[in-house]
Amino acid sequence: MISCKAPLVSVIVPSYNHQDYIEDCINSIFNQTYENFEVIVIDDGSKDNTVSKLQALQERYQFTLVVQENIGIAATLNKGISEYAGGDYIAFCASDDYWLPEKLQKQVDFMTATPNAYMCFGKAIAIDEHGKELESKTRNINNGLKGGMVFEDIILMKFHPPVNQMFKKEVFKLLGLYPVGLWTEDLYMNLKICREFEIGYIPEFISAYRIPSNSVGKFITTRIADSHKTCIDLYKDSQYYPQAIKDWHYRNLIWYSSFKAHKIRAIRSLFYCWDYFYKISYLKSMAKIVLIWR
User: Fold this and answer.
1) DSSP-based three-state secondary structure for 283
2) Rounded to an integer, what distance in angstroms lies between the CA atom of residue 179 and that of residue 36?
3) What are the backbone angles phi and psi of residue 197, rounded to the nearest 5°?
4) What is d(CA 236, CA 174) in angstroms, rounded to the nearest whole number?
5) 144: Cβ–Cβ under 8 A, 6 or more apart, which residues?
6) Distances (CA, A) of 105 to 30, 69, 76, 100, 110
7) 67-122 pLDDT, tens per residue?
8) CA–CA dist 248, 228 (Å, integer)
């Protein structure tokens, strides 16, 4: 029986073309040890068999299911927050990820014990499209994680919180919703929250984060890098901005040095971060600019 004192958690699942993973995602949410939650699944115009699988899952679990034309991830999250979420806390689960059974319980316990934290997150297991753990990527995505006042760490990208956060719903009233059209809406919101408030870190694995083998393709375009810069440029008044923008150029150099379509971008960035010339990645990227044309 659910205690009347247990905070309600609104779980929002933005769903898009994940027919192979959606059942594991939804099952993991309803297998939580914490019981006082509501689930809102918003399918954002899937073209595969995701919707029919969701309809079957809805019959089993009786969650709120919204099927809409594609409007993008940020607008979908905003819709879930502003039109459907009734909880004290909000948690998102991507439709190709899944949660470990005690995820919500650990986060609710942390948030209720730490009232000055407006967001908390934990460690994540990196998995491929077949559900196999990617051990090196698991180490990478959990490297350097910490809580507290971490704005400097986030803007300098010393770490990126795994996408398993729980938020106080109040924070979206205080700081606003996600920006529509920005590819890195998670970085945008992390920066806004970390600039103003402490965030909490639970040093335990609480979720699985899927990294398909073809995910490297997202760096062939410049949309992610451009969105990173848009987020960083919001904080030109910050003492950390000069370092943040130099590091952004360094990432451009590393990411785009081997792509024919983006050689000019890589070369321009090379001059903004020239004092990293002693780094192995800098030297390798210079060689790629000359030798590799993809």
Assistant:
1) helix
2) 29
3) -135, 165
4) 22
5) 153, 158, 159
6) 13, 34, 25, 10, 9
7) 999 999 999 999 999 999 999 999 999 999 999 999 999 999 999 999 999 999 99
8) 8
Determine the Cα angle at 286 with ends 284 and 290, to 5°. Answer: 110
Amino acid residing at 194: C
Stated length of the chain: 294
Neighbour tally for 233: CB within 10 Å: 12
Amino acid at 147: G
The pTM for the full model equals 0.93
**Longest C-alpha distance within the chain, in Å?**
66
Q: Are 40 and 64 in contact (CB under 8 A)?
A: yes
pLDDT, block means (10 residues), the chain with 294 residues: 70 97 98 98 98 98 98 98 98 98 98 96 97 97 97 98 97 98 96 97 98 69 94 98 98 94 94 94 95 90
Give the dihedral sign, CA 60/65/71/73.
negative
- pLDDT of res. 218: 55
> Structure tokens of 64?
């709120």
User: Position 248: which residue type?
Assistant: W
**Which residue in the block uniquely carries the two structure tokens 């694995």?**
205
Residue 52's pLDDT is: 98
Q: Are 178 and 78 in contact (CB under 8 A)?
A: yes
HSE of 38 in the Cβ direction (CA atoms, 13 Å)?
15
User: pLDDT digits over 205-235, tens only?
Assistant: 999 999 988 765 555 689 999 999 999 999 9
Handedness of CA 154, 155, 160, 165 (dihedral sign): positive
**pLDDT score recorded for residue 3:** 45
- CB contact set of 291 (below 8 Å; sequence gap of 6+): none
Q: Give the separation between CA 48 and CA 33, rounded to whole angstroms.
A: 31
